Structure formats: structure tokens, C-alpha cells
Amino acid sequence: MAKILSLGLTGKKLLAQGFLFVLLGLILMVTGTWLPVKVIRLVLFLAWIATV
Prior knowledge:
Layout: H1 2-5, H2 9-31, H3 34-51
């Protein structure tokens, strides 16, 4: 924990991005491709609603 606290802001950002990348990879591995496709469709649908 002390090593993480001694990191600068850039190091903390890189650590967080790496953690999120691994987490998203695990989610993709478990759920397959249906979850990302549904999320993309939801985002596009919400963007379309915002323009109407």
C-alpha cells in the first residue's frame, strides 16, 4: 500500500487504467460478446434519444 501511495499522479492513473483493463477483460471472458454489444447499443440508443 505504501508503494502505491508513493506513486505520482501519472503512476496512479496508469495503475487504475491497468486495473480497469484487466477487469474489463475478465468481464468479456465471462460474459462473451453479448454484454459489450448490448452496452454499445444502449449508448447509441441514448445518444439518439438525446438528439430527438
